[in-house]
Every structure is written in structure tokens, then in C-alpha cells.
Amino acid sequence: MLTQHTSTKPEPLLSVEEGATLLGETRSAVDRGIKAGTFPLPVPRTDHDQIAADLISMPEAARRIGLHVDTLYRLCRTGQFPPALQIGARWKVSIPRLERYLHGDTTDS
User: Fold this and answer.
1) Closest Cα partner for 40 from 107, 79, 85, 5?
2) Considering the entire predicted model, what is its pTM?
């Protein structure tokens, strides 16, 4: 489960439009994901390029870990692949979460 970073001074968060642009989604897809509870918590406005670089496609993730992409999608739908994030109708994989998952770290930050 993702947790929101707390600090003494809150950082500005991405707007829905910025999030949609960053993730390559339409605004309506992001809105549906937020309403369905499948969209990750808002991301601090710091370093958009790094955030985009930390997300890869499902086919790329499947290639990196040696699974068929259909197998990976099935694991995502059943909740057995925590590095994946569902954004609207699409799945993206967080590289840092994938690395922790592959190294056996069960904590999710």
C-alpha cells in the first residue's frame, strides 16, 4: 500500500491533467482510476522526469523478469504482483518497487 509522505511543509501535488500527461493517459482515464481507487496517491511535484523514468510498461517488466506478459497481467489482476500500479485501464510497473520485489523485500513504501 502506498503511503503519502508527510513533512512540515506540504509540497504541491500534481493536478489530474499533469498526472495524465506524465502517465500517457487521458484525463478521463485518470479520473476513473481515482474514483475506482486504483490510481496511486498524488505524487509530489518534484522531478517529473524521474517519476516518468521510474515507470515501465508491462511488456518491458515481463521481459526483465522472464515471464510471459499474459502471466504478468494475470498476477496483477489477482494482486500477486505488488510492483504494478493500475492507472485507469493500464498497468505500469514501478522500477524501484520491482527491484525491491525481486530482492525479496516485502515492505511497500
Assistant:
1) 85
2) 0.52
Contact 98, 60 (CB under 8 A): no
Per the structure, the count of domains in the chain is: 1
Domain hosting 92: range is: 16-102
Strand partners, 91: 86
How far is Cα of residue 68 from the mean position of the Cα atoms in its chain? 20
Q: How far apart are CA 5 and CA 42, in angstroms?
A: 10
Within a domain: 98? yes
- The pLDDT tens digits of the residues spanning 36-67 come to 766 655 555 555 555 667 899 999 999 999 99
